[in-house]
Automatic annotation (TrEMBL):
Residues 6-165 form the 6-phosphogluconate dehydrogenase NADP-binding domain. This is 2-hydroxy-3-oxopropionate reductase. Belongs to the HIBADH-related family. Keywords: NAD, Oxidoreductase. GO terms for molecular function: 2-hydroxy-3-oxopropionate reductase activity. Residues 168-286 form the 3-hydroxyisobutyrate dehydrogenase-like NAD-binding domain. It is an enzyme of class 1 (oxidoreductase). Its EC number is 1.1.1.60. Pfam families: NAD_binding_11, NAD_binding_2.
Length: 296
C-alpha cells in the first residue's frame, strides 16, 4: 500500500493527460475525470482510474489537481453542488494548474477556505513537450506549508518549481510568462520571414541565432514548427489569445504599460479571427507571412 497521497485529476487535455501519467509513473494513485471518454481510456491504459463524475473523482482524494482551459471552466468544476468544493473532503489540498485570472484564484482560495479546503494556484510553462518530459516550470501562489506539501508532486511534473507569493501570484507570473512567450514567438516569426525573403538558408540561420544572444527556449522548441510549417497544436492560439487578455487586463489594473505586448495581443487576436485559433501559437508566422504578401 502506497503512503503517497491519493490524487484526483480533473481535466485531461493536451497538458493534463501527460502530466497525470507522469504522476502515475512516480507511483501516485490517480483518479481522473474529463468530458472526453477517449482521454479517460488513455488514463486507465496508463494505470490510472477513470471516474464518472467530479464528485466521484474527488471524494476520497487527498489532493485534487485541476487543469482546464480558462477561468469559466475552473469556476464550473469547482463551484456548485456537483463541484469540487462541495464534494472534496475537508483538509484536502486543491492545486489549480490552469492558466486563469489572478482574481479567480484569489476568489477560489477564499471560497475553499470556508469548506476547509486549502488551495494553491500553480500554472505551468513548457507546453506539451514540457508536460511529456516532466520538465515544466511551475509558478505557485499560496501558503508556504501547502507549497511544501505539494513539492513532491510538483517534482514529478517539472524542473523549475517556485512559490511566487500569496494566492494569485502564480497566475500573475504566468501572465508575464505568456507575454514574454508571445512577444518572443512574434519576433522569431518576423525573423523567419525576413530571412527567407532574403534568400538565406533558414535552417542554418536559426541554428546560429539560437547559439547566441538571440537564442531562447521558444526558438529551440518552435524551430521545427517554423521550418516545416507544422502548426499542430502544442499550445493553441485560442488559449494564448485568452492569456494575452489576462495579462493586458491585469497590467491595466496595476498601471503597467505594455506597448509591445498590446501590439502582439492584437496580432494574436487577428490570427484567431482569420480562423487559425486552433493552431499552435507558432502559427503567428502565418500572420507575418500574410502581412508580407503571401497568399495562404
Amino acid at each position: 500500500m502506497s503512503n503517497l497521497p491519493k490524487i484526483a485529476w480533473i481535466g485531461l487535455g493536451i497538458m493534463g493527460s501527460p502530466m497525470s501519467e507522469n504522476l502515475i509513473k512516480a507511483g501516485y494513485d490517480v483518479t481522473g475525470f474529463t468530458l472526453e471518454p477517449d482521454k479517460l481510456d488513455r488514463l486507465t491504459a496508463a494505470g490510472g482510474t477513470a471516474a464518472g463524475s467530479i464528485a466521484e473523482a474527488v471524494r476520497d482524494a487527498d489532493v485534487v489537481i485541476t487543469m482546464v482551459p480558462a477561468s469559466p471552466q475552473v469556476e464550473a468544476i469547482t463551484y456548485g453542488p456537483d463541484g469540487i468544493l462541495e464534494n472534496a473532503r475537508s483538509g484536502a489540498l486543491l492545486i489549480d494548474m490552469s492558466s486563469i485570472t489572478p482574481q479567480t484564484s484569489v476568489d477560489l482560495a477564499t471560497a475553499a477556505r470556508d469548506k476547509g479546503i486549502r488551495v494553491l494556484d500553480a500554472p505551468v510553462s513548457g507546453g506539451e513537450a514540457g508536460a511529456i518530459e516532466a520538465v515544466l516550470s511551475i509558478m505557485a501562489g499560496g501558503g508556504q506549508s501547502d507549497f511544501e506539501e505539494a513539492e513532491p508532486i510538483f517534482d514529478a511534473l517539472g524542473r523549475t518549481i517556485v512559490l511566487c507569493g500569496p494566492h494569485g501570484s502564480g497566475q500573475t507570473v504566468k501572465a508575464a510568462n505568456q507575454l514574454i512567450v508571445a512577444v518572443n514567438i512574434q519576433a522569431c516569426a518576423e525573423a523567419v520571414v525576413f530571412l527567407e525573403k532574403s534568400g538565406v538558408d533558414l535552417a542554418a540561420a536559426l541554428d546560429v541565432l539560437n547559439g547566441g544572444l538571440a537564442g531562447s527556449t521558444v526558438l529551440t522548441r518552435k524551430k521545427d514548427n517554423f521550418l516545416n510549417r507544422d502548426f499542430k497544436p502544442g499550445f493553441r492560439i485560442d488559449l494564448h489569445h485568452k492569456d494575452m487578455g489576462i495579462v493586458t487586463d491585469a497590467a491595466r489594473n496595476v498601471g503597467a504599460a505594455l506597448p509591445v505586448g498590446a501590439v502582439v495581443a492584437q496580432l494574436v487576436a487577428s490570427l484567431r479571427a482569420q480562423g487559425d485559433g486552433g493552431l499552435d501559437h507558432s502559427a503567428l508566422l502565418r500572420s507575418v507571412e500574410r502581412l508580407s504578401g503571401a497568399q495562404l
